């Protein structure tokens, strides 16, 4: 398990769960194991639904995935175990199962990983200013939704770039963002998978636009957010399952109604702009106990706490066994297919 080079301790949250563990945090005590840590059978969808989502059968996807691995390894040699089928499948899907285009995307990604130093970002980068940054730009993981996916919450309207640059640099903010993605791939998604009883590779995002104004849509703020979006789309594709946008100002809703018809149906289906009374929309995806109290739910933990199954000691141990097995024993192709339903449709709650 990764330990922070800086031993920062914080009290547990009011609902009895620890503040959480991350590369930049050391937990005070183990996170309480919650009763909802059980498989999510309703998340499994049929082959017919898979074909409707992707336009090809699961068997055909597996064939193209094998083709992608073959052509990539012809260029690079045998890939390291980290680049398993779950990892490469995301790039294949991001390019509409076009093997040639997926290869180009994946090769660019490998080059970027090497240049950016992604292999060492979890162990070597310590973001001491994490808690201070999260008070100015609240963002982070908080529990799981009804499909077992980690919930990622962002409050874009609270971003104050002037205050942020007073305590950190643009480069460190972006490096922390990359570190969080690497943590999600290595620990958070696998931890959620252990609990869900199936492969979980996507998040549910809750984006709060309360307070968003012109200052967020221009200048350095727009540029930095644009840089982050490009990193995400180029290097962490198909990790976003659904997005629920809350507290959207009227001008955003107007723009969304203009832009929405220009998007493909899959993208449209992933994004939902909630009404001013957003709780019924959130409850389609998330149990009330997993929604922070400040958003109207019953969870008293904060985004700083990083609460989720990935903090449970038993889950952490299971994930570490999976990593050891993958790196030493498991051959490519032995991992379960990720979210055949694309993790975008809760059953019985829509």
Strand order of the largest sheet: 1-2-3-4-5
Rg (CA only): 20 Å
Question: Number of DSSP strands?
Answer: 5
Instruction: Give the distance, in angstroms, between the N- and C-terminal Cα atoms.
Output: 37 Å
- What is the quaternary state of this protein? single chain
Whole-number tally of structural domains: 2
From N to C, what is the helix and strand string? HHHHHHEEHHEHEHHEHH
Q: CATH homologous superfamily of the largest domain, by name?
A: CRAL-TRIO lipid binding domain
Mean of residue pLDDT values: 83
Share of β-strand residues: 5-15%
Can you give the helix content as a percent range?
A: 40-55%
Low-confidence stretches: 1-21, 26-42, 330-336
Helix count equals 13
Could you name the key traits of this structure?
alpha/beta; 350 residues; 2 domains; five-stranded mixed beta sheet; Phosphatidylinositol Transfer Protein Sec14p; single chain; disordered N terminus; 45% helix
């Amino acid at each position: 398990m990764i330990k922070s080079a800086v031993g920062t301790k914080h009290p547990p949250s009011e609902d009895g769960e620890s503040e959480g563990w991350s590369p930049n945090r050391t937990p005070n005590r183990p996170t309480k194991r919650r009763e909802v840590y059980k498989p999510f059978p309703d998340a499994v969808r049929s082959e017919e639904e898979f074909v409707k989502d992707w336009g090809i059968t699961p068997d055909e996807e597996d064939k193209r995935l094998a083709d992608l691995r073959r052509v990539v390894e012809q260029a690079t040699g045998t890939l390291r175990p980290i680049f398993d089928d779950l990892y490469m499948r995301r790039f294949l899907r991001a390019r509409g199962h076009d093997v040639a285009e997926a290869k180009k995307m994946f090769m660019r990604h490998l080059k970027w990983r090497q240049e950016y130093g992604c292999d060492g970002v979890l162990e070597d980068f310590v973001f001491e200013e994490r808690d201070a940054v999260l008070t100015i730009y609240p963002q982070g993981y908080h529990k799981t939704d009804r499909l077992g996916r980690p919930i990622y919450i962002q409050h874009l309207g609270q971003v104050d770039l002037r205050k942020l640059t007073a305590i950190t640099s643009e480069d460190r903010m972006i490096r922390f963002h990359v570190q969080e993605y690497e943590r999600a791939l290595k620990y958070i998604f696998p931890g959620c998978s252990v609990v869900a009883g199936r492969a979980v590779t996507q998040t549910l995002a809750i984006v709060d636009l309360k307070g968003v104004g012109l200052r967020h849509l221009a200048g350095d703020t727009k540029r930095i957010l644009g840089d982050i979006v490009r990193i995400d789309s180029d290097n962490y594709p198909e990790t976003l399952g659904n997005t629920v946008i809350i507290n959207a100002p009227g001008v955003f809703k107007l723009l969304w109604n203009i832009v929405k018809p220009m998007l493909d149906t899959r993208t449209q289906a992933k994004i939902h702009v909630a009404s001013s009374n957003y709780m019924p929309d959130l409850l389609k995806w998330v149990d009330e106990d997993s929604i922070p109290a400040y958003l109207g739910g019953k969870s008293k933990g904060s985004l700083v706490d990083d609460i989720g199954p990935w903090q449970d000691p038993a889950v952490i141990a299971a994930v570490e066994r999976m990593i050891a097995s993958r790196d030493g024993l498991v051959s490519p192709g032995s991992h379960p297919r990720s979210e055949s339903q694309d993790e975008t449709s809760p059953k019985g709650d829509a």
